[in-house]
Amino acid sequence: MQSGRRTVPRLDRETGGRGSEPRKPAFGDKYGKDQTGFLRTPSQNGYRRTFGSVTNCFYLVLFAEFSAMTEQNLAHFDADDFLLNFWQKSPLLIRQAIPDFVCPLSPDELAGLACEDYSESRLVLEKYGAKPWELRHGPFTDEHFAALPDTHWTLLVQDVDKYDADVNALLDYFRFLPSWLLDDIMVSYAVTEGSVGPHTDQYDVFLLQASGQRRWQVDRSTDYDRTSLHDTDLNILQQFSPTDEWTLEPGDILYLPPGTPHHGMAVGECMTFSVGLRAPEATQLIDELLQDGMDIEPTFFREVKTNATHCHGEISIDSRDSIYRMLKQHLTQLMQASDEWLGKYLTRPKPGLEPVQSGDPIDIAGLRSRYRAGDRLHIALGTRIAWAKADDGNYRLFADGNRFNFAAPQLDQVRLLGMAKEFTQPQLDQWIDSDRFASILIALINQGSIQFESP
Fold first, then answer.
1. 41 occurs within a structural domain
2. Same domain flag for 300 and 271
3. Of 35, 37, 165, 206, which has fewest CB within 10 angstroms of its CB?
4. Are residues 396 and 271 in the same domain?
5. pLDDT tops 90 at residue 243
6. Which residue has the higher pLDDT, 223 or 207?
7. How far apart are CA 11 and CA 193, in angstroms?
8. CB 275 within 8 A of CB 205
9. CATH of the domain at 198
10. Of all residues in the chain, what percent carry a pLDDT higher than 70?
11. E strand segments, 302-419
12. Rounded to whole angstroms, what are the CA distances from 328 to 294, 322, 332, 352?
């Protein structure tokens, strides 16, 4: 397990959290130590919103390139067929997508993470709480778990891939998608009849059954009743009429496109890993564009027709069209002048998960000394990296919200830094003596996006 990746401590296998003393089983003998599982409910972190179908073709172009980088392959799965026939269109059940799957996380480790103040965790109690479908927010304590009923509750923890290297490694199975599109792996543990209710999500999600069994019901219809239950903090559908039902076993994956009504219920104790994708809404992207373009020369509305108005308070059609034209021209100018804003936005870490420098800053001499001593370099857990070709033919690498410039002949360097998870000596030998490449590598190390690991 990698450790010390970001501003929050990594999950500790011995303590179940970050403490120095071993954590006693949060669930005790009552729930056992070897059962595991996960699920996802609508997130409020501002990262999951709908892009809309207008970008589907754009995604498919990117997917074609990233498909060639797949390191782990899902069994019984054709990525090209999936992207053409199912992506954002229809649910897909993949039986034994990961054969002989063994859950890398125990319920007590998940509970330990939910007890830490740096993690985002929730408990959902359908029954036996203060009210039906009660939602509780962490951090929790062992006493909270000890007081839970025997049935009808679910624990959910976001961003477990940012804390645990074994969970993070599961993202390799989804490298047919752009890395910047993957949001997080949310893990849920549920006891018998545990559920978060029938609901819809505005993002794509892959539901990997990690342990135990979960029964999933899905409504494929498009004219379902969107009315939500009252008196609950969860977005639970008031009416739900499933068209399909499956019971998932460990290693099975269920893909759900945005807006698909679904309901998962634990058949005994189980865990589910929810691989959620990002979907920023248009207003969020426009706000980011405007913030990035604050230094652009401002545009003022000064166009007034020379003929006198006969209606003093009227907003004329001519004036309206002139203002709209000005706005369109300004937005176009912003996008042309700030071609890097999207890369910075898409790689910006979530609040609280920013990279942190590991140890003292390193210089070129220190980099080459550690490299030749055999220390390995790898991408830090939770780091977001992407790259793009600029209009001038050169390349931009984006890492955790920062931009790094590469000349056109350096494409191989960009691809290496933008796609690899670990860096071997044969990969770096040809460039480590280049001061330009070394300086960028040092910047990535010093900001915490890349880290050393001693042999």
1. yes
2. no
3. 165
4. no
5. yes
6. 207
7. 28
8. yes
9. 2.60.120.650
10. 79
11. 376-379, 385-389, 395-399, 402-406
12. 16, 10, 6, 35
* Residue 380: half-sphere exposure toward Cβ, Cα within 13 Å: 29
Tell me: do 139 and 204 sit in the same domain.
yes
**21 assigned to some structural domain:** no
Cβ atoms of 17 and 23 within 8 Å: the answer is yes
Q: Which pair of tokens denotes residue 222?
A: 């498009």
Residue 89 lies in a domain: yes
Domain that holds residue 270: 28-277
Q: How confident is the model at residue 70 (pLDDT cuts 50, 70, 90)?
A: very low
Are 269 and 391 found together in one domain?
Answer: no
3 state DSSP class of 406: strand
Least trusted range by pLDDT, from 180-189, 312-321, 371-380: 312-321
Determine phi and psi for 17, rounding to 5 degrees.
-155, -135
At 372, which CATH number? 3.40.366.30
pTM above 0.70, yes or no: yes
Tokens of 9: 């401590």
Q: How many CA atoms lie within 13 A of 446 on its CB side?
A: 14
Q: What is the pLDDT of residue 83?
A: 95
Q: Using alpha carbons, list the distances in angstroms from residue 397 to 213, 325, 361, 428.
A: 42, 33, 21, 17
Q: State which H helix or E strand residue 324 sits in.
A: helix 317-337
Does 180 map to a domain? Answer: yes
Does residue 231 contact residue 298 with C-beta atoms inside 8 Å? no
Six-digit token pair at 242?
């499933």
